């Protein structure tokens, strides 16, 4: 089909077709017959020649910019139905893949056999793009308005309401028709308008923003507070934007803050506790009068004080560790007992509770430190503790004395009664006996009983001297030195029995009567050397160590041992012997126990037959 422009050259046809725009002539099937130059500048001529216009290009809708099916295009509908279509906007892509927007109008030409339909085209891209920007701005404005809890009024300099915007119409004092185009003077009380109108004029005169807060003047909003923000509208010279914000919650919050602040100030300044606000480095931000009283510093001195400089050195580390846990959020507060150096130089015991205050970013702003002076309480507790220990010592001493008296009673009843009775009996026999040989035997028996009585009395005298000599002088005894002295006394026996003797003096020094310590080690080592197992190499281990603030001495052997279930209650009794065939009077352990107990100590034994014995001496030095 040949292109021709004959139909387009006639003026009457141009006038009949909507104006001097791009024109396209189509046949009965929609093929393009001809285009004028303006149409050629708008459409890609090389792509559409000899084609049906509705099939030659992809057309896009203005709403959503999605492709439109050819059957739905306006000029295709004109071909099918003959209906005139006016100003229908479609988008097409250019060579650089951008969209241009064209307005299409179409009508049939029934009087021309060579031209069936004429289409006019106009480039409306600037208009569409501008409308799109306006729509986007309108949408953004609408989103902004719906996101605000405020009311925005457009008000003239005379105070007349011209427009409003709000997302919550319930906030309006009046229905829109009741206040639009009306003056603020006619709507609000004079005490409010007398302040508002001058602010409107000042905002316009000085091109500044002004604010005003006021309680609601109406019963419908009774108890609510509002804030006016009056701002010039720069596109005009006689109008302002009046933004009304409901600040009731803010006012309530401020009142609550003021109330809480007042309560805190009252509690802070008039508390019976010393209170300080300190930063994370320990510097005092504020302190009350009670803290000044507790520590002896003036308010001025406290204001430039770092409390870490005044905490007792022994208490700093624990306090620092607990504060770090507070900073990490591991706990809300902690309480410690610690000492602060008073302004006069002495230390004050305080019970200290520390908590944190966070800012809006949940960062620690400062510490609240509360101090209670417990120095007097500490003194009383120390006195009570000391008295308790003294009572405990007295109790132990009395129990020991009672047991010793019972033992002495037993000794008198058994160890003295027999020789005294023998002496009386022999004296009676001597009165009636004249035979020389018999008298000689009686005198021998009498001497033996007298010697036994004398020995017992001597032993009892020594024991009584030990129990009564509590003020014996204590010196700084060196365990290795004293052991060496005792060791030398048993040197021959140790070599003859080939004894393996080891020592471990973890504690080398002890404040104790030297003569007693020598005697204790002597008697216990003597026992370990004496009661050995035949044909078994003796092993003895001597050790000193610390336990529960007391010094302990242990002497362990691998000897014949003791049947404790049978003899435990008699181990340290007077003249008690548990092994026959050994040269023993049963006095060593008895005297050793008295020496230890006379100074508040204790002795115990661990043993099994044929499995050795361990003697444990607890000197209770620190008690």
From TrEMBL:
Gene3D superfamilies: 1.10.287.130, Histidine kinase-like ATPase, C-terminal domain, PAS domain. CDD domains: PAS. It comes from the Bacteria. Residues 137-207, 260-330 form the PAS domain. Its EC number is 2.7.13.3. The keyword Ligase does not apply. InterPro entries: HATPase_C_sf, HATPase_dom, His_kinase_dom, HisK_dim/P_sf, PAC, PAS, PAS-assoc_C, PAS-like_dom_sf. This is histidine kinase. It comes from Sphingobacterium kitahiroshimense.
């Amino acid at each position: 089909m040949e292109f021709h422009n004959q139909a387009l050259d006639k003026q009457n046809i141009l006038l009949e077709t909507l104006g001097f725009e791009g024109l396209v002539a189509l046949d009965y099937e929609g093929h393009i017959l001809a285009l004028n130059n303006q149409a050629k500048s708008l459409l890609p001529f090389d792509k559409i020649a000899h084609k049906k216009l509705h099939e030659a290009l992809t057309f896009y809708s203005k709403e959503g910019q999605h492709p439109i099916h050819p059957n739905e295009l306006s000029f295709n509908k004109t071909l099918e139905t003959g209906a005139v279509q006016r100003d229908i906007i479609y988008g097409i892509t250019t060579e650089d893949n951008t969209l241009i927007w064209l307005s299409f109008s179409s009508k049939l030409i029934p009087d021309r056999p060579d031209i069936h339909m004429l289409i006019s085209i106009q480039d409306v891209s600037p208009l569409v793009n501008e409308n799109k920007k306006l729509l986007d701005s309108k949408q953004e404005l609408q989103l902004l308005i719906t996101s605000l809890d405020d009311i925005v009024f457009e008000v003239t300099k005379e105070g007349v309401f011209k427009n409003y915007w709000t997302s919550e119409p319930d906030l309006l004092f009046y229905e829109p028709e009741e206040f639009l185009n009306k003056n603020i003077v006619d709507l609000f009380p004079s005490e409010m308008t007398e302040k508002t109108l001058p602010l409107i004029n000042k905002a316009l005169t000085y091109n500044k923003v002004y604010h005003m807060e006021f309680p609601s003047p109406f019963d419908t909003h009774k108890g609510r507070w509002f804030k006016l923000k009056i701002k010039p509208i720069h596109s005009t010279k006689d109008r302002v934007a009046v933004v009304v914000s409901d600040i009731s919650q803010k006012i309530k919050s401020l009142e609550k803050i003021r109330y809480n602040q007042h309560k805190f100030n009252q509690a802070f300044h008039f508390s019976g506790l010393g209170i300080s606000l300190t930063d994370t480095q320990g510097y005092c931000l504020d302190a009350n009068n009670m803290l000044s009283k507790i520590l002896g510093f003036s308010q001025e001195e406290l204001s430039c004080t770092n409390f870490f400089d005044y905490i007792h050195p022994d208490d700093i580390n624990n306090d620092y560790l607990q504060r770090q846990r507070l900073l990490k959020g591991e706990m809300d507060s902690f309480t410690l007992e610690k000492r602060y150096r008073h302004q006069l130089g002495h230390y004050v015991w305080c019970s200290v509770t520390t908590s944190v205050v966070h800012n809006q970013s949940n960062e620690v702003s400062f510490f609240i430190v509360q101090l209670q002076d417990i120095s007097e309480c500490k003194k009383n507790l120390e006195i009570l503790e000391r008295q308790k220990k003294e009572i405990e010592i007295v109790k132990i001493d009395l129990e020991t004395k009672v047991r010793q008296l019972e033992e002495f009673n037993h000794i008198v009843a058994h160890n003295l009664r027999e020789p005294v009775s023998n002496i009386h009996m022999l004296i009676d026999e001597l009165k009636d006996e004249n035979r020389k040989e018999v008298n000689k035997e009686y005198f021998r028996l009498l001497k033996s009983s007298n010697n036994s009585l004398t020995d017992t009395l001597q032993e009892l005298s020594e024991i009584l001297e030990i129990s009564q000599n509590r003020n014996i002088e204590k010196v700084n005894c060196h365990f290795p030195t004293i052991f060496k002295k005792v060791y030398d006394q048993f040197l021959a026996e140790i070599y003859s029995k080939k004894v393996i003797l080891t020592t471990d003096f973890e504690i080398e020094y002890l404040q104790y009567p030297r003569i007693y310590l020598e005697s204790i080690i002597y008697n216990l080592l003597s026992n370990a050397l004496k009661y050995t197992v035949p044909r078994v190499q003796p092993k003895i281990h001597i050790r000193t160590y610390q336990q529960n603030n007391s010094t302990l001495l242990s002497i362990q052997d691998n000897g014949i041992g003791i049947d404790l279930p049978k003899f435990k209650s008699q181990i340290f009794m007077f003249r008690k012997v548990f092994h026959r065939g050994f040269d023993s009077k049963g006095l060593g352990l008895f005297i050793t126990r008295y020496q230890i107990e006379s100074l508040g100590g204790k002795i115990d034994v661990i043993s099994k037959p044929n499995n050795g014995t361990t003697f444990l001496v607890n000197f209770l030095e620190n008690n």
